Amino acid sequence: MTIRVMIADDQMMVRQGFSVLLNLEPDIEVVGQAVDGNDAVAKVAELRPDVVLMDIRMPGLGGIEATRRIVGPPSESSVKVLILTTFDLDEYVYEALRAGASGFLLKEASASELAQAVRVVAAGDALLAPNITKRLISEFTRMPGAPRQPTGERIGELTERETEVLSLIAQGLSNAEIAANLVVAEQTVKTHVSRILVKLGLRDRTQAAVFAYESGLVRPGH
Fold first, then answer.
1. What does the alpha-carbon distance between residue 64 and residue 42 come to, in Å, rounded to a whole number?
2. Where do the H-state alpha helices sit in 3-142?
3. Cα separation of 101 and 53, whole Å?
4. Quick check: is 100 in a domain?
5. Residues 94 and 169 both lie in one domain
6. What tens digit of pLDDT does each residue of 182-210 get?
7. Where are the alpha helices (DSSP H) in 102-204?
8. In a domain, 167, yes or no
9. 70 and 174 fall within a common domain
10. Which of 123, 154, 185 is the last residue of a domain?
């Protein structure tokens, strides 16, 4: 199945360069470009891409608010947002993840990294750059005034095994690594992950990891 991608960036060279690279991939098609956040929100509604590559800093409506508007509740939108950033510890990435982004990508990424990132986010079955994303999540939960979700009741909806799987997701483990850790089949892990997302009303593994940290299930640095 072809992954439909839209690129939102105020720099024409970035949009065109990424478009050329992605259109070379047999399973990816760039269906549109947007010059700012407002343009991105409007074109997502029109084009219905699977993945949006979203720059954080754009004139007018920025990438974070555009992400929030595009993603919406998990039950209402299947569009995934992949944040484009220049620095891997950009403070704005923290808020982008909270707004519903599924991951982030450095603008200096290679063509193969770009294509793989799109595939990972479209599939929703693994964290993008687990070691870095884990560090980001840990860091923004340390930030002064970081909001804590009222997650007690929602955590209580999970079984003991699902809670265990959620904890391992937050530690950056893939399905295969979780399966090895728990000595179960990888398909069993996939089933647990799907049930966790449904029960908690979350979009993907990145959001599950954020939830695990903000709920206190996993502590930063552990």
1. 15
2. 12-23, 37-47, 63-71, 91-99, 111-123, 130-142
3. 10
4. yes
5. no
6. 999 999 999 999 999 989 888 788 788 87
7. 111-123, 130-142, 152-156, 160-170, 175-182, 186-200
8. yes
9. no
10. 123
Is 131 part of any domain?
Answer: no
Place of tokens 């029109």: 46
Mention every residue, 6+ apart, whose C-beta is less than 8 A from residue 209.
127, 133, 134, 137, 169, 170, 172
Residues 6+ apart with CB under 8 A from 114: 18, 21, 22, 105
The CATH number of the domain holding residue 187 is 1.10.10.10
- For strand 3-8 and strand 51-55, is the pairing parallel, antiparallel, or unpaired? parallel
Residues 107 and 33 in one domain: yes
**What are the tokens at 129?**
């750059």
**pLDDT tens, residue by residue, 53-103:** 999 888 888 899 999 999 876 656 689 999 888 765 556 767 787 788 888
In angstroms, the Cα distances linking 201 to 19, 146, 194, 198 are 32, 21, 10, 5
Domain match, 25 and 86 both: yes
Tell whether the model's pLDDT for residue 147 goes beyond 50. no
79 in Cβ contact with 66 (< 8 Å): no
Domain of 107, CATH number, reads 3.40.50.2300
